[in-house]
Design a protein that fits this description.
mainly alpha
Length: 187
């Protein structure tokens, strides 16, 4: 089914094409930059950012962090941005559907739902990652110095809400496409 007239106009197509390119660029750049940042940041800095304080006046931790701990913490730190990259790639496919004039096709709506899934998974990973990383990096700490960092920020809550809203819009659009297809077959 073809989309409405406004989405197929040249200006609308240019905006959708631009958004598709922007989604692709961000889906590539965000994970690459995040990986670089995680690999070049010492684990001690991660702990300080998570609120784990050192007991020595010199700022040293007093325990060793093994390379496997840092490596696993890097993987955990990548979960949220990889989920977001997946969502951005699905949004890109959605915008490309708009460019083709397929705003109300089942495929385009499924890509919109994929975007919502990516954003939801990213928000959940963003909520869980600090706790997992703090536990992982303080495994070698002496008793009483291990840490579990919990935090709930408004950005994660808003991202969860946003993902839920987009999911519901995609669900309603899916149902609308199915009904339109049924009515088209009757006529």
């Amino acid at each position: 089914m073809k989309s409405s007239k406004s989405a197929s106009q040249p200006n609308g197509q240019r905006i959708n094409a631009f958004l598709a390119v922007a989604c692709l660029a961000l889906a590539i750049a965000l994970p690459a930059l995040t990986l670089y940042g995680l690999c070049t940041t010492p684990a001690e800095t991660w702990l300080a950012q998570l609120g784990v304080k050192s007991s020595s006046p010199a700022g040293q931790l007093g325990f060793q962090i093994a390379p496997w701990q840092s490596g696993l913490a890097t993987l955990i730190g990548m979960l949220a941005v990889c989920a977001m990259a997946y969502g951005l790639l699905r949004a890109r496919l959605c915008f490309l559907g708009f460019v083709r004039g397929e705003a109300f096709s089942l495929g385009t709506v499924r890509h919109l739902r994929g975007f919502a899934i990516g954003m939801f998974a990213s928000a959940v990973a963003e909520l869980l990652s600090p706790a997992l990383i703090s536990v992982l990096l303080t495994l070698g700490a002496p008793a009483g110095r291990r840490s579990l960092t919990l935090g709930l920020g408004s950005s994660e809550v808003l991202m969860l809400l946003f993902a839920g809203i987009v999911w519901q819009i995609a669900h309603v659009m899916t149902r609308a496409v199915e009904l339109a297809d049924e009515h088209a077959q009757i006529v």
